[in-house]
Amino acid sequence: MKSRNSWKSVMRTLLVSAFLLSSFGAYTSDKGSDFPSDGLLIKLDSNKSDWFHKNQDQFGIRVERKLNTIDPDIYLAKITVERPLLEVINKLKASPAVRVVEPNYIVSIVRPSNERVLTKAEIKEMMTKNDLSIDLFDPSVPSDPMFAKLWGLKNLGNNSPRKGVVGADIDALRAWEITKGSRDIKIAVIDTGIDYTHQDLSANMWVNVAEKEGKTGIDDDNNGFIDDIYGYDFANRDGDPIDDHSHGTHCAGTIGAIHNNGLGVAGVMDRVTLMPVKFLTAGGSGSLEAAIQSIDYATMMNVDIMSNSWGGGGYSKLLEDAIIRAKDKGIVFVAAAGNDAADNDRSPHYPSNYPVENVISVAAHNIDDVLANFSCYGRNTVHVAAPGQDILSTVKGNGYGIYSGTSMATPHVSGIVGLLLSKEGRIDFASLRERIMATSVPSAAYKGKLISRGRVNAYNLLTDTRPPRSEPNPSDWVKYPLAVPFESTHPYKDNENFQKVFSIPGAKYVRVQIKKYDLESGYDFVRLVDKKGVETEKVSGAGENYVSDYIEGDSVTIRFTSDSSLTKWGFIIESIEYIP
User: Fold this and answer.
1) Catalytic: 247?
2) Tens digit of pLDDT for each residue in 43-53?
């Protein structure tokens, strides 16, 4: 019999209790989401808004302000009573005046797994030394002195801190023979801002001509925002989105650092218009309120692409609605998949997991052409991988730094999409997503991890070149019922470890159907192992009728493992499928 006083059980009880008992305490999930202390977001029925404001005291809240969004009926409110948060939310939900109420989640940059700002001496050395096998006098190669270190654009196998796989990059040089971008393409970097004075970025910055006369304190263009010359800062609620962190500037440099200016790095696009939309503070965090306003601002200013290297918080209807408003304006929403090394199919990461057709979710691969060990993934929810480990780019103060994360992969994809739009104009979202995935370079390393099973390739995307994929035809699967179900005891025991090999002679591919499973999430697993002994998939948590990814060959080993605490019901497998 398992002890309910195990440390995991105690910790979970404490977390849930903290959430249920405190009106103001923060509940933190494994994805880093918070119920922050500064209140709730409330969307009102416009016909009942006046009544609600007059009677807000009965709900235990005080409306602080209306959000400056496209939707005119969203408000920030603070809780004024000592009651559990859920009690306040449920009372608001019961009111016919309230359409949506949700915590003002705290979100953050998808934090790099490491980050290092280069010293002036290191920059000088990179600017003057080229000891790599790249011809910097080749006219197709930008003359920027640090280009040889940009392995994501041109992977030489030796232009990263360690050796890698030659050619595992976005194929930028061949793509640039077709287009280097256009200033007509406007990309909003929704982040910590951008150092718009940076020597490698300033010529590609968006400028609001109507506000260019300077900080007048007047909304010269009547767009609802005062002195938004280069964009807007929703973290500090002013018109200056200068980057006081560096994360946003790093992302911007990957998208659009200027080519051939003799200064440093080169972006995926030489010509582009970058708009900084700041909602994350110098500490790298921000509120759901500011995120919604940022998306709506970029939508209102009619950008072509939004680059989003941030995430956290639970599902938000209000944030999803803002992304839908962007979609309705034809704007692509590129989003980082997250750095938790987690399966986003089972543990959603937002905003990359929103099921809106303009969202492109991006994982990170490294110089070895495999997913970075920190990258989130999802066979059904993450679209493609892009270079995201040891990425050199711009940072604030005319500096340069090397960061790692899906934050760094995301701007590679934003830039690649920008190149395509420069060449062909806007295309419908279904065609865009299908083309990005179909033109990606497939690899066994991404099988079962990404919808596309591949990493992005700019040249393939621009030319609509589709590498062959040796994948089974979905209509060819044949069901193979098991004479005796393979299952655990119900409930299973501590420290279980048993397995069975299932072989179907003549099968080219096999996959497993798990009729039902209820396992301690993250600790107890049904594991699938191929004929070579490679673990291809592991299943945890709870669900029904789960179908695994395909495994090449005529056999699969199904292994069950459990740890020393918290047993649950277990699992049952009644059939396997195969393709002869």
Assistant:
1) yes
2) 999 999 999 99
